[in-house]
Write a structure and sequence with these properties.
Blueprint lengths: L8 H14 L4 H13 L1 H16 L3 E4 L17 E5 L2 E9 L2 H8 L16 H10 L1 H4 L6 E7 L4 H4 L2 H9 L2 E7 L6 E9 L21 E6 L6 E6 L17 E7 L4 E7 L8 E5 L1 H10 L1
Parallel strand pairs: 3-4, 4-7, 8-9
Antiparallel strand pairs: 1-2, 2-3, 5-6, 7-8, 9-10, 10-11
Helix pairs in contact: 1-3, 2-3
């Protein structure tokens, strides 16, 4: 079964385009990308695809990595790109989830011809990318997005809004209130979360974490056009203005501290919220039951 990105005219065209773009800047940028291409083809193509995506959405994009470095420890960790529009500027760091990793974690075959059944989400891999890329986004002075891309052909499923919601609230499950004497369920089922795999919220509480990361771009490059969603940090140190990428749908979580309820909503820079989904922490639900 094919589990890697194979060169084809589409990707060869992207390579040529990216080389031409990098040629307008200092030579070391192009050399570093060529080295990455030779070492990790998917990661290099992912950088090129994110750059193309950002430009297609109206941003002026420049390489931002520190290739010289004046500190004794070497180059300073920085995001890959600096993007600007009349509305403002922001940084984007790029990371790639390989096709092989998607196959392993989701159970989805790479080829569309095999169909998709009984597949898992990719949130564990996305969450780990947030942890591993901390140095790249932790010291920025502008809103910063982490673009997580993959060339898996079923990325439209494993990066769907259903799973993006769970990056905002953590993994959810259905729960019931049970009468301890009869063992019977009481009332309707409700969604609960322990905040597992929620990169912006601390498990066991509703405290914010990784506030230097303004949000994620989930980029499925296995489709044409790419399937792209964004999720925003609810308490980012430098909040991202969705008008900077107005055509992309962004999800955000609203937190009710009093009830422990989390609700997600989706909108772009052009429209109001389009959907809403709520979940609760189990301990908050139990507290309400005791009080009511």
């Amino acid at each position: 079964m094919e589990t890697s990105l194979e060169s084809c005219p589409t990707w060869a065209e992207l390579e040529v385009e990216h080389r031409q773009w990098l040629s307008a800047f200092d030579r070391p940028y192009l050399q570093k990308w060529e080295d990455l291409r030779n070492d990790n083809y998917e990661a290099a193509l992912c950088e090129a695809a994110v750059r193309r995506l950002l430009q297609a959405h109206g941003s002026t994009v420049e390489p931002n990595e520190d290739l010289v470095g004046k500190a004794p420890t070497g180059p300073e960790p920085r995001p890959d790109f600096r993007c600007s529009r009349p509305e403002g500027a922001f940084f984007v760091e790029v990371t790639c989830i390989s096709i092989a990793t998607v196959v392993e974690q989701t159970g989805l075959p790479h080829s569309l011809q095999f169909g998709a059944q009984n597949y898992a989400h990719l949130n564990d891999a996305i969450f780990k990318k947030c942890l591993r890329k901390y140095e790249q986004y932790s010291r920025t002075n502008l809103p910063t997005l982490l673009a997580v891309g993959t060339f898996h052909q079923w990325s439209v499923l494993c990066m769907s809004r259903k799973f993006a919601d769970m990056l905002l609230t953590g993994e959810t499950s259905l729960s019931w209130t049970v009468d301890t004497e009869t063992g019977q369920g009481i009332g309707d089922a409700f969604q609960t979360t322990e905040l597992r795999l929620a990169p912006f919220l601390k498990p066991g509480s509703l405290g914010a974490t990784r506030t230097s990361l303004s949000g994620l771009l989930l980029c499925g490059f296995g489709y044409d056009p790419p399937h792209v969603l964004g999720v925003l940090h609810p308490r980012a140190a430098r909040p991202f203005d969705r008008r900077l990428l107005p055509a992309i749908q962004f999800g955000e979580v609203q937190i009710n501290q009093a009830t422990g309820q989390l609700c997600t909503s989706w909108s772009s820079g052009h429209e109001e919220a389009t959907s809403r989904r709520c979940s609760e922490r189990p301990e908050a639900k139990r507290d309400q039951e005791r009080m009511g």
